Request: fold
Amino acid sequence: METQPHQTGSQPNIFHRLPYEIIRQLLLYLPVRDIARARQATKEIYHVASDPTLWRTCCLADFRYWNPEHGLRERLRQPVLLGHWESLYAIRVGRNKRASDWLEKIIRTRTDHIEHISVLTGDGFGYDVKDLLLKQMESDEDVEDVLARR
Reply:
């Protein structure tokens, strides 16, 4: 017996006909925040968007430098299901947000630079902050504080 396509309003849902791997590749073109939102669309997308392989790919694509505490080499040797890649991605995003806040403090304030920099380069962020700092060096010329960022 042939199943009917899932309906979303009056439009048929073609995702249920696509192979899992194709949906995963399509999701990789989205910003990560949109991957998380896409989970709400269908059960098929929910399962693909929760795939540890997808999150491992996101981790490795979005973050080049890793603090040793994450045990990246060991995670890469393990089966992908044991890597907890989505939670690792969330940790890195959280650190980048906090590091970005500290960087803004350094740029915006005129005092305590050494203390703020020591927090940014200290144990709280470690090697994870390198990706964020390197992105700051690529700031557009028209950004008001481009020299401070570089």
The first strand starts at residue 7 and ends at 8. The first helix runs from residue 20 to 27. Residues 1-6 have pLDDT under 50 and may be disordered. Strands lie at 7-8, 11-12.
